[in-house]
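Support request, please re-run this one:
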Amino acid sequence: MMQSVKYWLSEHPSIVNFRWSQSFGSTWSFLFSAIAVYVVTAITLHVFLSLILPKRRRVPLGPIPAIHSLCISLISVVIFVGILLSAATEIRYTRWFWRRTKTITTPFQWFLCFPLGTRPSGRVFFWSYVFYLARFLHLFRTFFTILRHRKLTFFHLFNQSILLCMSFLWLEFSQSFQVLAILLATLLYSVVYGYRFWTAIGLPTACFPFVVNCQVVLLGCNLVCHFGVLSLHFLKGGCNGMGAWGFNSVLNGVILGLFLNFYVKRHLRKRNADDISGHGGSSSSSARSCSSSASEIKGE
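Re-run finished. Output below.
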């Protein structure tokens, strides 16, 4: 069984012989067109609904969001296992090359820093490509939010567009750190979207902001790893794709700033609501917390 899984996820000829330059969606024109279509479609849908429906009228979607969450969770699990197996195989086959470059000496350093001259081909880049394609599936949550909750924010459009752009840059410039970033992201997505599916089918929610806390943990891990990449770049003679890494770091910083602003405002709003309520008891506080968590899962 394990051998079969390993073959299909890391040894299949399509994975081993993958080439980014020969793949669908590998051009800059495709990326910019996709982002433009996404932003224009989302804004158009939001404006259109605002014109034809009352402000509080929501469009029922039935089980579609739950199915979407389940699909993303399962796809994330497959990507996580696939890139982990592929990374282990790649490390085993390329250790001899490390001694010549002297850029990296341990597997963990390889996760943070690709040797100079690395090309976007082979096993790990195949799964990076699958992760890039899976980002398009994430975009559907924007339209679910518009249809069900009649909400569209700049942060949501910006965040989704930037994440798609970063996934493209990972491949285009063979950027260092992407393997570890994909492992962290897919682990988070498998848990978060599994939880969203759990709540969408009517099962109980956590009495704390589960999704937001998971995002904070991911952002914190990414921040620590970025310092690791920078250290290896200067101490070990250079990492591949550092130009793209620098650009992505700026984008990550912007996203982090916007997210922390949202997180602080949410915390202050909740604190003010608790003060106004006059500390009405632990049971009511717990109920408000659960309600807040449920709203967060639904995208409110």
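Residues 2-297 form one domain. The chain has twelve helices and no strands.
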